[in-house]
Automatic annotation (TrEMBL):
Belongs to the class-II aminoacyl-tRNA synthetase family. GO terms for biological process: lysyl-tRNA aminoacylation. It comes from Microbacterium terrae. Binds 3 Mg(2+) ions per subunit. The gene is lysX. Its cofactor is Mg(2+). This is Lysine--tRNA ligase. PANTHER family: LYSINE--TRNA LIGASE, CHLOROPLASTIC_MITOCHONDRIAL, LYSYL-TRNA SYNTHETASE. The lineage of its organism: Bacteria, Bacillati, Actinomycetota, Actinomycetes, Micrococcales. It is found in: Cytoplasm.
Amino acid sequence: MTDTPANTPADAPEPTEDDVFEQKAVRLAKRERLIDARTDAAGGAYPVAVPITTTIPALRAEYGELEAGAETGVTVGVAGRIVFSRNTGKLCFASLQAGDGSRIQAMVSLANVGDESLAAWKELVDLGDHVFVSGEVISSRRGELSIMVSEWQIASKAILPLPNLHSELSEESRVRSRFLDLIVRDRARETVIARAKTNASVRQTFASHGFLEVETPMLQVQHGGASARPFITNSNAFDADLYLRIAPELFLKRAVVGGIDRVFEINRNFRNEGADSTHSPEFVMIEAYQAYSDYNGIADLTQELIQNAAIAVAGSTTVTWADGTEYDLGGQWDRLPMYGSLSEASGRTVTPETPLDELVAFANEAGVDLPPHPTHGKLVEELWEHFVKPGLTRPTFVMDFPIDTSPLVREHRSIPGVVEKWDLYTRGFELATGYSELVDPVIQRERFVEQAKLAARGDVEAMRIDEEFLRALEHGMPPTGGMGMGIDRLLMAITGLGIRETILFPLVK
């Protein structure tokens, strides 16, 4: 069998497993011929380096407007991956692709390289190979920016064939083989670029407000900062169980106690829970704390962070999702009270004083599943998600949560039984959360004790008493507003993609 022709037609079927096996054998044989042809001391099939003088994106920027048939007299050396190839008698054409997806045509002619070099190109070069070419920058008769090749060499041989570039990879294939996804699909590369622009924008916005970026431990002797089930590991050096971070909150608050009044971290968290279109066991969050602010001030900052990120990625606060839908992230976002909106949407008055048994009966009547360890707050939040959440379209801050589900949050300054907490909803999912932080160590200890009681009853998401954190609070923490937002989910809000598409290499089974 010969290798699959480089100019695979658009409607060609994907190669079978047997085809791939045979193609690999053919390409390995070509690799051996490359080794035999090497004369330098390094040996091996591939050169250690190639003498590039420029890049494909730079060439397109400088010479993209050449008229058809134009010659520049400029000789360059450039490298890229071959994603299209067509071999004729005395002239071969290939498209070289850079990492950003930009391409340039290489023209290998008998007149310029000679019989032996042209024959070697036809014999050894395959789709997927990285190739270096040197020659004059021209525009072909059809107006395509090209290199008229005078010298070339294979920089790296693709032992396995690329997938058909004209057919869409399945979502599972994209996730499991992201390296192929990045080669063949523009959207995959654009998402990586969008994530980088988002991170840069977030850092720039924080810097403009005087925030400092810090790093906190991923391995912790006690998990905390969120209601979540942790991953547990073991340290040989300390002969102790450790927890992978579920949130950096308690360490960032220590920094505020220490005098870093405006602090943030872009941090990787791990939660040993379910995975779906909006949840991943490993994910990236922003957390930020601003001394002498509250949940209103941190909401303003969060809105600014998101709108600036949208502008950085899409050029506007109106973004276009992957399915073509336009979504407006601009303007001032609504702030909706949790209890009031639940009462209005359900037609039944629910307040912080509504008894637990009444909420249980209401949930059963509405067909809402009860949480494993029902409390007033958990049931109110479940009922809110059932009655109110589906009707949210624009970005919305949902304000003032039940006290028993928010053990790290200050009680509301004027509404008894709730805390100063908001959740931000966009695209139908929770994007961020913000607090007026609880800074009183006496009340914080009482909240931790209540959480410990829940843990003793089997609630694996409940927090434990963190004595070191309490000791920090006892040294005095100023009034503070804090927020947490998923970077992966922020990309979802801007691009309209699922969470596995926004993470470069998501965890898969």
